[in-house]
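Dear Dr. H.,

I hope your travels went smoothly. While you were away I took the liberty of generating a structure for the chain from your last submission, since the lab meeting agenda had it listed for discussion. I wanted you to have the full record in hand beforehand rather than looking at slides cold. The sequence, exactly as received, is reproduced here:
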Amino acid sequence: MIDKYNPSEIEAKWQQRWADDNLYQARDDDPRPKWYALTMFPYTSGDLHIGHWYAMAPSDVYARFKCMQGYNVLHPMGFDAFGFPAENAAIKRGIHPRTWTMSNIENMRRQLKSIGAIYDWSREVITCEPEYYRWTQWFFLKLWEAGLTYRAKAPVNWCPNCQAVLANEQVVNGECWRCETPVTRRDLEQWFFRITKYADELMKHDGLDWPERIKIMQANWVGRSEGAELSFGLDYPDVEEKEIRVFTTRPDTVFGVSFMALAPEHPLVRKLTTAEQRDAVEAYIDKARRRTEIERLSAEHEKDGVFTGAYVINRLNGENVPIWIADYVLASYGTGAVMGVPAHDERDFIFAGKYKLPVKVVVAPPDWNGRPLAEAYTGPGEMVHSDSFDGMPSEQAGIKISEFIARRGWGRRTVSYKLRDWLISRQRYWGAPIPMVHCEKCGIVPVLEKDLPVLLPENAEFKPTGESPLKYVDSFVNTVCPQCGGAAKRETDTMDTFMCSSWYFLRYASPLYADGAFNPDAVGKWLPADIYTGGGEHAVMHLFYSRFFTKALRDMGRLDFGEPFLRLFNQGTITHDHQKMSKSKGNVVNPDKYVSAMGADTVRAYLMFIGPWEQGGDWDDSGIYGLARWLGRIWSLALEPYEGGACGGEGLSPKDLSRVTHQTIRRVTGDMEKLRFNTMIAALMEFSNFLGKVRENGSVPVEDYREAVRVLLKLLAPTAPHFAEEVWARLGYAYSIHNQKWPEWDAALVEDEEIPLVVQVNGKLRDRLMVAANIDEASAKKLAQESEKVMVYTAGKTVIQVVYVPGKLVNIVVK
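The corresponding predicted structure, in token form, is as follows:
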């Protein structure tokens, strides 16, 4: 009688053994080909819920699979430890953010180890540790030296709840991405990275195996538009500026301009507004500032505006064009001014209708009779009311008009982007301090590299004021200018936490390296990452910023590659009762409960089986119990004595077992490579069921059965590592199963000797025949027509045609 499967004893034992033996420490001098399997590291929120496991357990399964395929696998883990939640916890709980963060890390590390993953803990990184953020600050200085960092006053997204600035990418549907509070606007001096320098390159994903959805999202976020920049004249003696420039993708419509719209924040608004319109304009500006960019651009947002009382001159026809302000125009996009062409732009058509502005058709719709348009016509057509360009196709006219204005100095062909530079300033404490100093004599001066890290003071006082707590720590603020030696003030903003995660994958290559952010030789060995797994919600934040960082470092000569992640895979979402898990709903599933009751391997296997990894699935307790029973059956199949072969049983043969075994190896290997874990588990279930039939039949020799069990355990090892290791050891095989070579299939053995052949009469199923897998067409047709079941439907009728689909069906057409 064998012992029952007891996961609580088995898993703790093997986790300790693997740790003691350093079984999963990746060695830089290992001669095997490298495989860098990277999973997005978690934010230190406190507890890992089942959604974290869903991100991490399958990625570990794949990393283990690559180990058994003979790769030297680096599968590291760390913690994204700076950010808003820790500081908010300090305010709410009256504790220091570091205390809260490090306590969470301790708990999360315990939970991560319970997964049984092959994380190389000797390479752990924690972004809030000074030895890490020293190099985050060093990167800031390198970007400053490269001309990729600057400080400017700008309208910013402000979260009243977090009391902090948000990057555009962190505003989701007009709300803060973390707390879902509606976002407002403020003007502040901020630090930016020139990510726009890499706009064109960030749109491209050549040679990368990434989801098409992510590539499209990134390209759309860059928002590249080809068109022309046009100059409209200003003729006001008391206004220094003599033109307003606009960007348009439709220079062919310039003769149809009937108004110009400026962003409420445009610097010319107050200069141009007449006394009669000033009150209305100021009221509108105030209202616009309370709206986020998302709200202003929303299709549902009413398009409104106010006339400034001023005009520009359309240089191509000499017309005076009224200048309005409208909040659907953004100061941060293009020039902050747009030309209004109601006849050929849907938004402008609505705006013109509301304010009774002219609608001038300059591109004639097909069969246009000269009557007013019922809606904007945005397609191509023949030019009308456009002076010397009349009669031209509009596409050709757009080119000719661009050339015309360029010759006269009124504009040029150009490209515009929606992408804005990355705003990295945060008015918070719990982040990497920006290593810059403000000196009245020298201006803004970078901290010397030898003085890094600029440490966070531990005695900051946390108040929900909207200002950085660092401003009130005199010992931090007051310093010496690195350039002149005089009195100076430190920068009190800290960096966006995405700064820390934009390079952590480089640090994993050499986490203890003291002479730089990373060891160039180690990075040369391990990077780029062969696969990166994590949530698709980071498409235009973390993934975008990491690519920018890598390209910037390449251009500095510090990396010899421009993409950090060769393959990207985004897992789906685990729901509970078909709802997204959240603490407020009380439906968060804590994995600890299930690990204690059924073991980590059961939880891992259930997460694999719950649905396609990229789609996610709904957590169901009854499902996990089924996986626990399945592992119990395999325990019995492998460990209970088998005495087959000798009894002379008939039925399943060694050849049958060999064929099914090699078919399973092929299926599981293919599913593993494609990260189709649910069908991989299904294949293992079918194989274990087949082995159960083999045991019952008893006709297969003992050694053939044992070899099939060995294959099953190897195929199962990545998914249920503790379970497979225990059974392997009990069977007397050498430690460790995870050092065994992944099974290979024999192509000659995977083909079925017989296949089912469907027989139809006039398209309706009439029989299924088992035929030789290599049957030829003539034989298939003959067997089909001679079937007794088929002859019932063909007797007395004329056969018109017999259609054969090789290896699948025969359809007999009669009348």
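Two observations you may find useful: The chain has a mean pLDDT of 92. The CA atoms of residues 79 and 434 lie 21 Å apart.

With kind regards,
E. W.
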